[in-house]
Design a protein that fits this description.
Elements: E1 5-8, H1 9-12, H2 29-42, E2 50-53, H3 62-74, H4 80-86, E3 87-90, H5 94-106
Parallel strand pairs: 1-2, 2-3
Helix pairs in contact: 2-3, 3-5
Length: about 110
């Protein structure tokens, strides 16, 4: 039984997310982190994963990715190891997955 939470980022958020802060546009990393990632991460049960499907995302800006995912550690205080365990990234573009985990790893905890 698949009890994981799955988000199709391109459909449920935007296919070309970009920008770091709310002031950078409607589909910013701050908005994605605060309104999508954090609420879903907080409702995960033990052994559940948050699956983020970037298959329909045609472009994801580096500032968007850093603010979304690095911000989970830097701003929200999530544990890096825990994020590696509970996040699953699906993307035909390997660089998106690589950058997400790179930004998580590079973030300085609060």
């Amino acid at each position: 039984m698949d009890n994981h939470i799955r988000i199709n980022v391109g459909e449920q958020f935007y296919p070309r997310p970009a920008g770091r802060f709310y002031t950078d546009g409607e589909h910013s990393g701050q908005k994605f982190r605060e309104q999508v990632l954090v609420p879903y991460l907080k409702q995960l049960k033990p052994n559940q994963k948050l699956i983020l499907d970037f298959s329909l995302v045609t472009m994801a800006g580096s500032s968007f990715l850093e603010e979304s995912f690095g911000g989970l550690v830097r701003v929200e205080g999530f544990d890096k190891r825990k994020l590696h365990q509970i996040l699953e990234i699906i993307s035909p573009r390997k660089i998106i997955k690589d950058r997400i985990f790179e930004y998580i790893n590079d973030a300085k905890p609060v």
